[in-house]
Request: fold
Amino acid sequence: GTGAAPASISITGGPGTYNYGNVTVGSFANNTFTLNNTGGVAATVMSEVGLAAPFAFVGGSYPGTGGTCGPSLSAGASCDIVVRFTPTGTGVAGDTIDISYFNGAATTNATRPVQ
Reply:
C-alpha cells in the first residue's frame, strides 16, 4: 500500500475576512469562494454547517445552484461556492462559512469568516 496525506480543504475568496462592503437593504451581493483540497485523498461527506441569514448559498442550501461543489472533492481538486449577502437592516453583519468533511481518517471542518 501507499500512505497518503488526509484531505485538507482551504477556502479562499478575498484577503483575510471577505468584506461584502456596503450593500443597500433590499438588494444583494454575491461572492464566489473556492474550496481547495491539498490533501492526498478525496474529501467526502461534505456539507455546510453554519451559514445563516443574511448570508445564504445562491439557490438555497449547500452547495446551492451558483457553484460547482458537491458532496466530495478529489485530491488536488477545487470547486466553487457562491454566497449571497442580502441585508434586511442596517449595520454590520458577519458569519462563518463552515464546511464539514471526512478527510479519510476523521471528520473535520474548513472555515472562512465573511462580513
